[in-house]
Amino acid sequence: MVTTRAAVTAREVAETVTDPELPMLTLADLGVLREVGETADGVTVSITPTYSGCPAMDTMRDDLVHALQRAGFERVEVRTVLHPPWSTDWITERGRRRLAEAGIAPPGAAPQRGDGPVPVQLLPPRRRVSCPHCGAADTEAVSEFGPTACKALRRCPACAEPFEHVKEI
What we know:
The chain has 4 helices and 7 strands. It has helices spanning 10-14, 27-30, 57-70, 93-101; strands at residues 33-39, 42-47, 76-80, 104-105, 140-143, 151-155, 162-166. The chain is elongated and about 55 Å long. The protein starts with 9 loop residues before the first helix and ends with a strand. Residues 15-78 form the MIP18 family-like domain.
């Protein structure tokens, strides 16, 4: 079967692919879509995992390949880039807004890494996270572990609603 490539760039197509765990965000909004290059030989896409061992990477890769092939780009290679490591600071403003609209508290500023090792904290960090439902500033942690490793569970005493919070990385 011969496919005809649409009049869109590979980057435009790649920027429409959504995250499998946070479907209200595109991979571009999440900041994991790094580079998209087009050559006569095909398309090369570079993505960065949100954390080491992220189980969504295979799905992200497959979704990118399928979207690009449907748009007429026959040869697609998806590369994983680990340096620099992904940071929640890479989530776009639009992505942060979409998280809040979906009832998920977006992350605050990520801790500064520097060039050395990341210090290990044995106690959960104290965070001031506003409720995405009512805006109350004083919410409480329920669990540092949510449905995915990058999210925590919280509750708002003001409106009594539980919600997820994307942890600062």
